[in-house]
Design goal:
Layout (H helix, E strand, L loop, with lengths): L6 E7 L2 E7 L15 H9 L1
Antiparallel strand pairs: 1-2
């Protein structure tokens, strides 16, 4: 059985007060303008 992430919820981490991301597929791309929280999201996932 292959493990899958169905959602990520982040509360009070760096620039995020409350964030919930869902709808993951096999390949995901995180993009956005500078200083919007892309690295913060990846660091929260790695914790």
């Amino acid at each position: 059985m292959e493990g899958k992430i169905s959602f990520i919820e982040i509360e009070k981490f760096r620039s995020f007060d409350n964030l919930r991301v869902s709808g993951f597929k096999r390949v995901n791309l995180i993009g956005g303008k500078n200083n919007i929280g892309k690295t913060s999201l990846l660091e929260a996932i790695s914790l």
